[in-house]
Amino acid sequence: MRFLMEESRFRKKVTWFNFISCLLVIWHHAGNAELFLGEASAGHPLFVFEYVTMPKLSRFCVPSFIMLTGYLFYRGFEMGQLREKWARRVKSLLIPYLFWNTVYYAGYVAASRIGALRSVINRPELTVTLSGFLEAVLHFSFNPVFWFMYQLILLVALAPLLYLILKRVRTGAAFFGFLLLLVYQGRQLLWLNPDAVFYYSAAAFAALHGRRIAEAPWNRRRAGVGILLIALGIVLGHVYYAGGQVAAIVLCQLLVPAGAWAAVPEGFLGQVRPFMTCTFFIYAFHFVPVRLINKLCAAAFPGNVWAAGVLFGIMPGVAVAVCYQAVRFLRKFAPRVWSVANGGR
To answer: What is the dihedral of CA 135, 189, 286, 7, to 10 degrees?
Structure first.
């Protein structure tokens, strides 16, 4: 299509944004002040930085993931493609969701029976039951980072209904108003979070009605609009932190990633490295090395603020390196496991 960025540049930009979001997820889970400092961590500047300051930045990672997923699903979408889209999402979302939840459940059960690892997972010895297994596999009770995967699976299943609502501008706008009202009132949509539906649907709406805007090549005017969206998002974020208006932070978490997408020139982004294409696996596995490395280093350097701070700063790079070595191992020695674990990507 005319007036759109080249497909290769679009795909590269998606990969970069996914990877950056993945790094933010790792940082969000990399807090270690309480492990290194114990009771002394309360109110310590490092604790405040890790658990108060950084979350204000890392909170954009999951909305960004959700928006990119929603946009890609509805990009050029027609109802005739639904069966094919569903089949691909079964492979890329549902099967790895069940796989990783099973792996985490089995891992926690095994670790709870090993004294040295029991302190790492902070759980007593776990008794295996059918109800516990089903809860873990279906509702991610031992893999909480997959909460948004659960949301995405439900949203993909609801594609016919969402498309019916979003294909018309008026019904789409009314739907967004309804979702914001639910957010404001603190209500749920059965098993769905209204904010997740909002991010996903907003991106889907952009794919259906605003592709020429979303995928336009970068220019200064586009960058200016992006910076304006980011600034507006920051203002709304301040409203939330000052007064607790949840709808304000939801809008903030929509506008800042959207603004960043518009403001960042695709030509500025460097070459995509092999490890950057493994973001799903990194997202699914990163919590294991992050937790283990933090625990081991805290035991080796108890009370050392500098060690804790440096480790927190470099943890995304360390976790990506560890995860990528696991990727290389699986690709070489267990390609079928790798295919399932990474959703066939």
So the answer is: 130
